[in-house]
UniProtKB/TrEMBL annotation:
The gene is accD. Residues 284-524 form the CoA carboxyltransferase C-terminal domain. Pfam families: Carboxyl_trans. PANTHER family: PROPIONYL-COA CARBOXYLASE BETA CHAIN, PROPIONYL-COA CARBOXYLASE BETA CHAIN, MITOCHONDRIAL. PROSITE patterns: COA_CT_CTER, COA_CT_NTER. It comes from Bombiscardovia apis. This is Methylmalonyl-CoA carboxyltransferase. The lineage of its organism: Bacteria, Bacillati, Actinomycetota, Actinomycetes, Bifidobacteriales. Residues 45-61 have a biased composition (Basic and acidic residues). InterPro entries: AccD/PCCB, AcCoA_carboxyl_beta, Acetyl_CoA_COase_Trfase_b_su, ClpP/crotonase-like_dom_sf, COA_CT_C, COA_CT_N. Residues 1-61 are annotated as: Disordered. Signal peptide: none annotated.
């Protein structure tokens, strides 16, 4: 890193014998160097060599190697290099590295825990360094990235170490929604330490060496008798697919760090800035992608398809960065660009449970919409859902409470909201998925889309229950009658015409007009600004 390299360059490899603390004789070619500074530089070099030996043996990078992967070349500037160390006693510094660097030319703050120093544990010195960095990041209004690899609170320091976690928790909450915060779990993260990343915007884990849990396997066994491995309890795969704690599962450390860099490219430095924009020139590729949209969605409303094919035919260059890809797959969320402008995309996934909303996908959608709203990214919603997933398991898991989070997120969002109904939008899920009534700005629908309280089959079974029973008793063809009633209901009620006539849909568009219509809508909404609707401290979001 730049700071330590500079220190090494200024060291005289063979200093002359002199009294302790005395300065070297000045020369025309170099400024004098105190022995203490030479000693510090030597300690820094030795510490990194020890770190490489320990970390590489475990298949892990050192903290400084991780910083090299995170930042643009030669842009890292360290803050407090030797804070918490004891140069005279042979300790180069504390178990955390703090500083600032650039990601795609934009400044970012970082703290990286160093497992090679006292197991990366957090004590008073480490906590103070992290809090100071976070204060600076909020003052200059830049994102904060945390590289976590720690044995937790330093037992030798007792409550003094625990107190530092409280300070970090509070700083993280203060920064929440003001500057983006990303946590990369690149080693152990256990006990109270897990709540540092849990409070940030995104958590990234790796397939190996990455663990998060409140109580470890030994404590679990002692308390419950359950025998489970660290990976089975809180590994990257578990938290990315089952618990939903992690938003991305990296193949290795380099992949995880690259994902963090990519996400930062879509987000502004802070909540008071617009997201960065990128040069973009449309052409033949966009026209071809628009044509492909015509054949992506099947005519039958019961036939599944991959909504990612729709997203990629809308986004610039077909690039879509998914968030929570492995968790709650009946919904898809992530970042893309339209005409060089970053946006958030939310879509139902008909390949999984017909795209219905369940307890997990509801929280997934709500959290992502809140993230986009905090950092000024327009939200594009692509709707194809039959409703909330039915069943006692969903009711008992809190579909009412957790499903309400989607409502809260959309109803409170003040960024541009553009919605496209691709195929079906029934019942409560129509309302919550970016409908005009909940606050969306501009809503479109494809010509074959269906919008109603219920799907035709369900509605006919309820509305014409007696007619169907009479037909059965009279020996008539009940299936033929039901098919006729379904066709009549679809033509008169389920199609989007009623919503169009009521103004709930602004325009009926052909599939190949989707990208163009969204881009035009975003241009119209480009000057939309936030406004305080009522005088209150904050709402009481369903949690």
């Amino acid at each position: 890193m730049r700071a330590s390299a500079a220190a090494v360059r200024t060291v005289n490899p063979t200093p002359k014998t002199q009294a302790p603390g005395a300065a070297e004789p000045a020369s025309e070619n170099k400024q004098p160097v105190r022995q203490a500074i030479a000693r510090a530089a030597s300690l820094a070099k030795e510490a990194e060599e020890r770190a490489r030996d320990r970390q590489h043996a475990k298949g892990k990078h050192t903290a400084r190697e991780r910083l090299d992967l995170l930042f643009d070349s030669d842009t890292f500037e360290e803050v407090g290099r030797f804070a918490g160390g004891d140069i005279a006693g042979g300790k180069a510094g504390s178990a955390v590295i703090t500083g600032f660097g650039q990601v795609y030319g934009r400044k970012v703050a970082v703290y990286a825990q160093d497992f090679s120093v006292r197991g990366g544990t957090l004590g008073q010195a480490e906590g103070q360094k992290i809090c100071r960095l976070m204060d600076l990041a909020m003052e200059i209004r830049v994102p904060i990235v945390a590289l976590i690899d720690s044995g937790g609170a330093r037992i030798q320091e007792g409550v003094a170490a625990l107190t530092q976690y409280g300070h970090i928790f509070r700083k993280t909450c203060q920064a929440s929604g003001f500057v983006p915060q990303i946590s990369l779990i690149l080693g152990p993260c256990a006990g109270g330490a897990v709540y540092c990343p849990a409070l940030t915007d995104l958590i990234i884990m790796t397939r190996e060496n990455s663990n998060m849990f409140v109580t470890g396997p030994d404590v679990v066994k002692a308390a419950t008798g359950e025998v489970i491995s660290m990976d089975g309890l809180g590994g990257g795969q578990v938290h990315s697919s089952t618990s939903g704690v992690a938003h991305y599962l990296g193949a290795d450390e380099a992949d995880a760090i690259d994902y963090a860099r990519t996400v930062l490219a879509y987000l502004p430095a802070n909540a008071n800035e617009d997201a960065p924009t990128y040069a973009y020139a449309s052409g033949h590729a966009e026209r071809e992608a628009a044509k492909r949209l015509v054949s992506v969605v099947p005519e039958s409303d019961r036939q599944p398809y991959d909504v990612l094919d729709v997203v990629r035919n809308i986004a610039d260059y077909g690039e879509f960065v998914q968030v929570h890809e492995l968790f709650a797959p009946s919904a898809v969320v992530g970042f893309a660009c339209l005409e060089g402008h970053p946006v958030g995309i939310v879509a139902n996934q008909p390949l999984v449970n017909a795209g219905s909303l369940d307890v997990d996908s509801s929280e997934k959608v709500a959290r992502f919409v809140r993230l986009c709203d905090a950092f000024n990214l327009p939200v594009i919603t692509l709707v194809d859902t039959p409703g909330y997933k039915p069943g006692s398991d969903q009711e008992h898991a809190g579909i009412i409470r957790r499903g309400a989070k989607v409502i809260y997120a959309y109803a409170n969002a003040q960024v541009p909201l553009v919605t496209v109904v691709l195929r079906k939008a029934f019942g409560g899920s129509y309302i919550v998925m970016g409908s005009k009534s909940i606050g969306a700005d501009i809503n479109f629908a494809w010509p074959t889309s269906q919008i109603a309280v219920l799907g035709a089959q369900g509605a006919v079974n309820i509305i014409h229950r007696r007619d169907l029973q009479k037909a059965k008793e009279a020996g008539q063809d009940v299936d033929a009658l039901r098919s006729q009633l379904v066709a009549d209901y679809e033509s008169s009620t389920v199609n989007a015409n009623l919503s169009l006539e009521m103004g709930e849909i602004d325009a009926m568009i052909d599939p190949d007009q989707t990208r163009e219509s969204i881009v035009d809508a975003l241009r119209t909404l480009a000057s939309k600004r936030r406004k305080r609707l009522v005088d209150k401290h904050h709402g009481n979001q369903p949690l």
